[in-house]
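Figure 2 data, in text form.
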Amino acid sequence: MGEKSFCRQLDRFTMNNCKIANELRKYRDLAGCLNQVSLSGERVRRPSDACDYAEYFISEDLTYLDMVIANAAYTLMTKSPPRSGFQADVIAKIMAGSMERRITAKKRAELEACLQKLSRVRLCILADHDHQVEQDLYEGVFLPVEWEDNGGKVTFHFLSGQPMPLYQYAEHHRQLIEVPFKHLRDGEAEHQVRHNNNDRMLLLRHFLLQELEILMYQNNKVAEQHIRLLKQDREGSEFGLLWTLGIIGDNTQPRDPSAVAQKVQRSIQQLLDGWQTSGYLGTLQYQALSPEDGFGVRIFSSR
């Protein structure tokens, strides 16, 4: 079965929602350390008296984009025949929920470099104090692939019998979220705003969809969510979703972060408006956060 054939079978995107995955998406100071995550949700660095926790080591910090690409690779891995070859283009299609997406040679090279990076990153999860999983140790390369260059395009192959350790751990926790492809792209609803599939919009869409799925389907354990685009720590450094997604950072500091936040806030509202029009949001409502609250949005249930 060729790449085109098994791609036609894909209609849902898988997101890793375990506590370790969420830390890897959010923080940039995890590499080279023994980190501990409490299943209560608290982030700790040292052993504690928590009843259930896991420790993990990762050899290199990952970005939010890296993690979305890893989700796309796992989505493909679960559907593709053993040893089937794939190229970076199909990862781009899965990320956008559209098998019609086309990418530039530059974007293909960026995705190829990211996939190769993920294949070098090593992850070890010590789960002997996590009583919700089936084994004590999950380890290996983050993305088990090998590749070959075929006339300027790199072809990747998943390594037979080697799971993605973070995803095997999440499977055992039953913390994988599946999102229909149709929510990853703009629909045909009347008056729905059409967006470009650049990295900013893709990451923003993925982040919002994961938060929405949590609010809608986790037995109402989470009643509402405040998504702040900007917030300051005690030293005055600006963090928040703009930093998490890499829209601002050490090498991408805009002159006026508030202007960037306002623009992204409009995009968030447009995405939520479209999902509400399509009926996807159900009973969820949303309202914009003020500049004093860091811009962004509050999402809550109207029930």
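Caption note: The chain has nine helices and 15 strands.
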